[in-house]
Amino acid sequence: MAIFHCYSDTSGSQSSTDGKVLVTAAVVATIEAWDDFDIRWMSVLRDFGVTELHMRHFAHSSGQYAAWKGDDERRKQFLSR
């Protein structure tokens, strides 16, 4: 029997009444697949000197990504990994 785990994330606001969109994405995988992903993901974060990815910070070069502003090659390499 395979055991699966699901991780999801929501963007937007459930209480929004101004027509904004609320989006939830989810990924389902086996525990072994998540373990493999975690190892590779932690390596990417370590290699790029950040601790997490929040698109609201990455997209606007704020927080941990402030020094990345204008460094399109670094941003491209990070997303590629």
Indicate the proportion of strand residues: 15-25%
Strand order of the largest sheet: 1-2
Gross morphology: flat
Give the fraction of residues assigned to helices: 25-40%
- Number of helix segments? 3
Unreliable stretches: none
Radius of gyration: 16 Å
- How far apart are the first and last residues' alpha carbons, in Å? 32 Å
Mean pLDDT: 89
Strand/helix succession: EEHHH
Largest sheet: 2 strands, antiparallel
Output the structural class. alpha+beta
Overall strand count: 2
Write the layout of secondary structure elements.
Elements: E1 4-11, E2 23-30, H1 31-48, H2 55-58, H3 72-80
Antiparallel strand pairs: 1-2
Characterize the structure shown.
The protein has 3 helices and 2 strands; from the N terminus they run ββααα. It has 81 residues and is α+β, with helices and mostly antiparallel strands. The longest helix has 18 residues. The chain is flat.
